[in-house]
Structure formats: C-alpha cells, structure tokens
Amino acid sequence: MSGILLVTAGMLVLHEGLHGLVFWISTGAAPKFAFKWYYASASPGEWLLPRRAFMFATLLPLVAITAVGLLLLPFAASQLRYLLILLVVFNASGAAGDFVVALRLARLPAETLVRDSGSEVTFFTPPVNGA
C-alpha cells in the first residue's frame, strides 16, 4: 500500500513538474503550482502562451512519462515492475484532461494564445478575416 501512495505522489510531482518546466522555459517566470485533495495543477500564471508552446506543455508529461516508463520496464526488478506499470497507468489517467485540451487546441489556428489559470484553460483566437 505504501508503494502505491509513493507512486501516486511521485507521479503527481513529476507530471506537474514537467508542465511547470515548459511554462518556466516559455515565460522565464516561475510557474504556479496547486495541490488540492482532488487535483494538482501547474500554470504559467498570468502569461498567455502561444499554441505550440502550450501544446508541448500539455502533452509532455503523457508522452515522456509513458515513454520512459515503458523503456525501463524490461530492466526493472520484478518487484518494481508493478509500481512502474502503476506509474504509467496513473499518469495516463491523470493526463486525460490534458489530452482533451490538446485535442481542442489542435483544431484552433496556429496564432491562438492560451491562458491556463490552473483550474481553467482559455483560448484566445485571432479574428477571422472580414469579421
């Protein structure tokens, strides 16, 4: 049971840390982190991020943790495989909201700017020509 709690806590810190790392690199400012009993979040604060940077920030934890976890799986001791699989699965389930945001963002124009408050993501799209 303690292994599951440790994996969950480690996954939350790693997942949100990866979001925060991209926000920090993109803005040069420290990201804002929030940990509530029902969710964790990282946000760039008041910054508006370009679509490409935000897409990268949104998908990085899902892609990186899954890839590294699956690459390490064959080399992990049998006792740790279970926890590594849980890490990958918990991360993927925790990234469901990120994936929904990425799908929505993929349909918006390249010039779209994104504001992430931690609990809400707002998209700012350029006006259509002639509007």
Quick structural gist:
By secondary structure, the chain is of the alpha+beta class. The protein contains four helices and five strands; from the N terminus they run H-E-E-E-H-H-H-E-E.
What's the total number of strands? 5
Rounded to an integer, what's the Rg over CA atoms? 16 Å
Helix run count: 4
**Beta strand %:** 5-15%
- Global morphology: elongated
Distance between the termini: 58 Å
Domain unit count:
1
Tell me what you see in this structure.
The chain is an alpha+beta fold and 131 residues long. The chain has one domain. It is built from four helices and five strands, in the order αβββαααββ. Strands 3-4-5 form a three-stranded antiparallel beta sheet. A hairpin with a 4-residue loop joins strand 4 (113-116) and strand 5. Helix 1 (2-27) packs antiparallel against helix 2 and helix 1 packs across helix 3 (78-94). The chain is elongated and about 60 Å long. The model has no long low-confidence stretch (mean pLDDT 94).
